[in-house]
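Researcher: Structure prediction, please.
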Amino acid sequence: MHITVSENAKELGRAAGRKAAALIRIALQERNAATIILATGTSQFETLNQLIHESQIDWDKVTMFHLDEYLGLPQTHPASFRKYLKERFIAHVPIQEYHLINGETDGNQECERLSRLILDHPVDVALVGIGENGHLAFNDPPADFETDRPYIIVDLDEPCRQQQLGEGWFKSMADVPRQAISMSIQQIIKSKYIICSVPDERKALAVKNSVEQKVDSLFPASILQDHPHCFLFLDNASASLLAPRHSIVKE
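Model: Predicted structure follows.
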Protein backbone atom coordinates (compact mmCIF):
# COMPACT_ATOMS: atom_id res chain seq x y z
CA MET A 1 0.00 0.00 0.00
CA HIS A 2 1.39 3.37 -1.04
CA ILE A 3 0.41 6.14 1.41
CA THR A 4 0.44 9.83 0.51
CA VAL A 5 -0.47 12.47 3.11
CA SER A 6 -1.47 15.99 2.10
CA GLU A 7 -1.99 19.11 4.19
CA ASN A 8 -5.77 19.18 3.75
CA ALA A 9 -8.69 17.65 1.86
CA LYS A 10 -8.32 19.91 -1.17
CA GLU A 11 -4.66 19.00 -1.64
CA LEU A 12 -5.50 15.32 -1.04
CA GLY A 13 -8.08 15.46 -3.81
CA ARG A 14 -5.68 17.09 -6.21
CA ALA A 15 -3.04 14.44 -5.59
CA ALA A 16 -5.52 11.56 -5.89
CA GLY A 17 -7.13 13.00 -9.02
CA ARG A 18 -3.77 13.50 -10.70
CA LYS A 19 -2.74 9.92 -9.93
CA ALA A 20 -6.04 8.52 -11.20
CA ALA A 21 -5.72 10.53 -14.42
CA ALA A 22 -2.17 9.27 -14.97
CA LEU A 23 -3.26 5.66 -14.59
CA ILE A 24 -6.23 6.15 -16.93
CA ARG A 25 -3.89 7.60 -19.55
CA ILE A 26 -1.62 4.56 -19.22
CA ALA A 27 -4.56 2.21 -19.86
CA LEU A 28 -5.60 4.26 -22.88
CA GLN A 29 -2.08 4.19 -24.26
CA GLU A 30 -1.73 0.44 -23.75
CA ARG A 31 -5.05 -0.75 -25.19
CA ASN A 32 -6.94 2.31 -26.43
CA ALA A 33 -9.64 1.78 -23.81
CA ALA A 34 -10.07 2.05 -20.05
CA THR A 35 -12.60 0.96 -17.45
CA ILE A 36 -12.94 2.86 -14.19
CA ILE A 37 -14.97 2.60 -10.99
CA LEU A 38 -16.11 5.75 -9.23
CA ALA A 39 -17.10 6.24 -5.62
CA THR A 40 -19.35 8.98 -4.28
CA GLY A 41 -19.87 10.79 -0.98
CA THR A 42 -18.10 13.76 0.57
CA SER A 43 -14.70 12.01 0.48
CA GLN A 44 -14.71 12.12 -3.31
CA PHE A 45 -15.61 15.80 -3.87
CA GLU A 46 -12.07 17.05 -4.42
CA THR A 47 -10.78 13.91 -6.17
CA LEU A 48 -13.52 13.99 -8.80
CA ASN A 49 -13.18 17.73 -9.20
CA GLN A 50 -9.51 17.29 -10.04
CA LEU A 51 -10.19 14.36 -12.36
CA ILE A 52 -12.73 16.21 -14.51
CA HIS A 53 -10.21 19.03 -15.02
CA GLU A 54 -7.38 16.74 -16.14
CA SER A 55 -6.35 17.03 -19.77
CA GLN A 56 -5.34 14.45 -22.38
CA ILE A 57 -7.93 11.85 -21.41
CA ASP A 58 -10.04 10.46 -24.27
CA TRP A 59 -13.20 10.08 -22.22
CA ASP A 60 -15.09 8.63 -25.19
CA LYS A 61 -12.85 5.56 -24.80
CA VAL A 62 -13.54 5.18 -21.07
CA THR A 63 -16.25 3.01 -19.51
CA MET A 64 -17.44 3.87 -16.01
CA PHE A 65 -19.12 1.77 -13.32
CA HIS A 66 -19.93 2.96 -9.83
CA LEU A 67 -19.72 1.36 -6.44
CA ASP A 68 -23.08 1.47 -4.74
CA GLU A 69 -26.58 2.90 -4.55
CA TYR A 70 -29.38 2.86 -2.01
CA LEU A 71 -32.30 0.54 -2.62
CA GLY A 72 -35.59 2.34 -3.11
CA LEU A 73 -34.18 5.86 -3.17
CA PRO A 74 -35.46 8.05 -6.03
CA GLN A 75 -32.85 9.50 -8.36
CA THR A 76 -34.23 12.95 -7.52
CA HIS A 77 -33.26 12.60 -3.83
CA PRO A 78 -30.21 14.67 -2.78
CA ALA A 79 -28.51 11.48 -1.50
CA SER A 80 -28.89 9.55 -4.76
CA PHE A 81 -25.50 8.43 -6.01
CA ARG A 82 -26.78 8.39 -9.59
CA LYS A 83 -27.68 12.05 -9.16
CA TYR A 84 -24.26 12.72 -7.59
CA LEU A 85 -22.32 11.16 -10.48
CA LYS A 86 -24.44 12.78 -13.16
CA GLU A 87 -23.95 16.22 -11.63
CA ARG A 88 -20.33 15.94 -10.48
CA PHE A 89 -18.82 13.80 -13.23
CA ILE A 90 -20.90 12.81 -16.24
CA ALA A 91 -22.05 16.38 -16.93
CA HIS A 92 -18.44 17.55 -17.13
CA VAL A 93 -16.68 15.02 -19.37
CA PRO A 94 -17.64 13.56 -22.77
CA ILE A 95 -17.86 9.99 -21.48
CA GLN A 96 -20.07 7.81 -23.69
CA GLU A 97 -20.43 4.53 -21.78
CA TYR A 98 -21.36 4.48 -18.12
CA HIS A 99 -23.34 2.03 -16.03
CA LEU A 100 -25.20 3.47 -13.07
CA ILE A 101 -26.96 1.40 -10.43
CA ASN A 102 -30.74 1.71 -10.51
CA GLY A 103 -31.88 1.29 -6.92
CA GLU A 104 -35.51 1.80 -7.87
CA THR A 105 -35.91 -1.51 -9.67
CA ASP A 106 -35.73 -5.14 -8.55
CA GLY A 107 -32.47 -5.36 -6.63
CA ASN A 108 -31.58 -8.92 -7.56
CA GLN A 109 -32.19 -8.33 -11.25
CA GLU A 110 -30.13 -5.14 -11.13
CA CYS A 111 -27.24 -6.99 -9.49
CA GLU A 112 -27.38 -9.62 -12.22
CA ARG A 113 -27.48 -6.98 -14.97
CA LEU A 114 -24.49 -5.07 -13.66
CA SER A 115 -22.55 -8.22 -12.88
CA ARG A 116 -22.86 -9.42 -16.47
CA LEU A 117 -21.67 -6.07 -17.74
CA ILE A 118 -18.66 -5.64 -15.48
CA LEU A 119 -17.41 -9.18 -16.09
CA ASP A 120 -16.85 -8.08 -19.70
CA HIS A 121 -14.85 -5.02 -18.58
CA PRO A 122 -11.65 -5.71 -16.61
CA VAL A 123 -11.22 -2.67 -14.36
CA ASP A 124 -8.13 -0.52 -14.78
CA VAL A 125 -8.64 2.07 -12.04
CA ALA A 126 -11.02 2.03 -9.08
CA LEU A 127 -11.61 5.20 -7.06
CA VAL A 128 -12.86 4.29 -3.61
CA GLY A 129 -13.11 5.65 -0.06
CA ILE A 130 -13.29 4.24 3.45
CA GLY A 131 -16.31 4.75 5.69
CA GLU A 132 -16.21 5.77 9.34
CA ASN A 133 -16.99 2.15 10.20
CA GLY A 134 -14.20 0.93 7.91
CA HIS A 135 -16.50 -0.15 5.11
CA LEU A 136 -15.39 -0.40 1.50
CA ALA A 137 -18.25 0.55 -0.79
CA PHE A 138 -21.29 -0.41 1.31
CA ASN A 139 -19.68 -3.60 2.58
CA ASP A 140 -20.15 -2.91 6.29
CA PRO A 141 -18.42 -5.06 8.93
CA PRO A 142 -18.34 -8.00 9.03
CA ALA A 143 -17.99 -7.78 5.25
CA ASP A 144 -18.34 -10.72 2.90
CA PHE A 145 -14.79 -11.41 1.73
CA GLU A 146 -15.75 -14.61 -0.08
CA THR A 147 -18.56 -13.97 -2.56
CA ASP A 148 -17.44 -13.74 -6.15
CA ARG A 149 -20.66 -12.03 -7.26
CA PRO A 150 -19.67 -8.59 -8.58
CA TYR A 151 -22.73 -6.79 -7.19
CA ILE A 152 -24.70 -7.77 -4.10
CA ILE A 153 -27.53 -6.50 -1.91
CA VAL A 154 -26.26 -5.48 1.54
CA ASP A 155 -27.78 -4.38 4.84
CA LEU A 156 -26.49 -1.04 6.13
CA ASP A 157 -25.43 -1.04 9.77
CA GLU A 158 -26.26 1.77 12.19
CA PRO A 159 -22.81 3.46 12.13
CA CYS A 160 -23.01 3.57 8.32
CA ARG A 161 -26.49 5.05 8.37
CA GLN A 162 -25.44 7.53 11.06
CA GLN A 163 -22.56 8.69 8.86
CA GLN A 164 -24.93 9.38 5.98
CA LEU A 165 -27.13 11.42 8.32
CA GLY A 166 -24.14 13.25 9.79
CA GLU A 167 -22.89 14.24 6.35
CA GLY A 168 -26.19 15.97 5.69
CA TRP A 169 -27.63 13.71 3.00
CA PHE A 170 -30.80 12.94 5.01
CA LYS A 171 -33.04 14.85 7.40
CA SER A 172 -33.44 12.04 9.95
CA MET A 173 -32.29 8.48 10.63
CA ALA A 174 -35.74 7.29 9.65
CA ASP A 175 -35.06 8.60 6.14
CA VAL A 176 -31.79 6.69 5.67
CA PRO A 177 -32.35 3.46 3.69
CA ARG A 178 -31.50 0.17 5.36
CA GLN A 179 -30.31 -1.63 2.22
CA ALA A 180 -28.21 -0.88 -0.82
CA ILE A 181 -26.71 -2.48 -3.90
CA SER A 182 -22.96 -2.60 -3.50
CA MET A 183 -19.99 -3.78 -5.51
CA SER A 184 -18.52 -6.73 -3.65
CA ILE A 185 -15.12 -6.80 -1.98
CA GLN A 186 -13.78 -9.39 -4.41
CA GLN A 187 -14.87 -7.33 -7.41
CA ILE A 188 -13.23 -4.18 -6.05
CA ILE A 189 -9.87 -5.83 -5.47
CA LYS A 190 -9.87 -7.29 -8.98
CA SER A 191 -9.12 -3.75 -10.17
CA LYS A 192 -5.61 -3.31 -11.56
CA TYR A 193 -5.10 -0.07 -9.61
CA ILE A 194 -6.99 1.32 -6.62
CA ILE A 195 -7.05 5.00 -5.63
CA CYS A 196 -8.44 5.38 -2.11
CA SER A 197 -9.23 8.94 -0.96
CA VAL A 198 -9.91 9.41 2.76
CA PRO A 199 -10.04 12.95 4.20
CA ASP A 200 -11.16 14.21 7.63
CA GLU A 201 -10.40 13.44 11.27
CA ARG A 202 -13.62 11.45 11.66
CA LYS A 203 -12.06 8.81 9.41
CA ALA A 204 -8.77 8.61 11.38
CA LEU A 205 -9.63 5.48 13.39
CA ALA A 206 -10.98 3.71 10.32
CA VAL A 207 -7.75 4.55 8.48
CA LYS A 208 -5.64 3.26 11.36
CA ASN A 209 -7.60 0.00 11.50
CA SER A 210 -7.48 -0.42 7.73
CA VAL A 211 -3.71 0.01 7.64
CA GLU A 212 -2.55 -1.50 10.93
CA GLN A 213 -5.02 -4.26 11.83
CA LYS A 214 -4.64 -7.68 10.26
CA VAL A 215 -6.76 -8.26 7.19
CA ASP A 216 -10.14 -9.14 8.63
CA SER A 217 -13.79 -8.79 7.62
CA LEU A 218 -14.38 -6.75 10.78
CA PHE A 219 -12.18 -4.10 9.14
CA PRO A 220 -13.41 -4.33 5.53
CA ALA A 221 -10.96 -1.84 4.01
CA SER A 222 -8.04 -3.78 5.54
CA ILE A 223 -8.31 -5.99 2.42
CA LEU A 224 -6.53 -3.16 0.59
CA GLN A 225 -3.32 -4.20 2.36
CA ASP A 226 -3.22 -7.24 0.09
CA HIS A 227 -3.64 -5.31 -3.15
CA PRO A 228 -0.39 -4.90 -5.11
CA HIS A 229 -1.23 -1.46 -6.50
CA CYS A 230 -3.31 0.42 -3.92
CA PHE A 231 -2.64 4.14 -3.46
CA LEU A 232 -4.05 5.56 -0.21
CA PHE A 233 -4.43 9.35 -0.14
CA LEU A 234 -4.90 10.96 3.27
CA ASP A 235 -4.80 14.42 4.77
CA ASN A 236 -3.10 15.31 8.05
CA ALA A 237 -6.34 14.80 9.96
CA SER A 238 -7.21 11.34 8.62
CA ALA A 239 -3.58 10.20 9.01
CA SER A 240 -3.28 11.51 12.57
CA LEU A 241 -3.55 8.12 14.32
CA LEU A 242 -1.14 6.18 12.11
CA ALA A 243 1.99 4.84 13.77
CA PRO A 244 5.20 6.58 12.61
CA ARG A 245 6.66 3.35 11.22
CA HIS A 246 4.75 3.63 7.94
CA SER A 247 6.45 4.72 4.77
CA ILE A 248 4.56 7.89 3.88
CA VAL A 249 5.00 10.36 1.05
CA LYS A 250 4.28 13.93 2.08
CA GLU A 251 2.61 16.17 -0.51
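Model: The chain has one domain: 2-233.
Researcher: Thanks, that helps.
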